[in-house]
Amino acid sequence: MKKVKTRTPPGKIKFHYRRERVQIAKCANCKSQMRGIRRLIPSEFKKLAKSDRRPERPYGGYFCSSCSKEIFRERVRSV
Q: At residue 30, what are phi and psi to the nearest 5 degrees?
């Protein structure tokens, strides 16, 4: 949380606390927006169950679904 000075109606200066804005999770490969990952501050994100934090597929919180499909196809072809 960030401290910000604000002036109140009687003219006094008080400190208000502002929440930090959380960035959208992005795919490591194509930099597109990740779906299935909530936009929460880290302290709230830690309180979630592991299955709520990210998708359950392999590379779930790292690659988007389309990039992970491509990776699986490449692995199958190389074997």
A: -105, -5
Question: Per the confidence metrics, is the pTM higher than 0.70?
Answer: no
Distance between CA atoms of residues 3 and 16, nearest Å: 6
pLDDT digits (tens, 9 = 90+) for 24-68: 999 999 999 998 888 888 888 899 998 888 888 888 889 999 999
Helix intervals (H) in 1-79: 42-46, 50-53, 65-78
- What's the one-letter identity of residue 56? E
Residue listed under structure tokens 């909530």? 38
Enter the tokens of residue 30.
């194509």
Tell me the residue ranges of DSSP E strands in the chain: 2-7, 13-18
| Distance of alpha carbon 68 from alpha carbon 28, whole angstroms | 11
Cα(20)–Cα(72) distance, integer angstroms: 36
Helix, strand or coil for residue 33?
Answer: strand
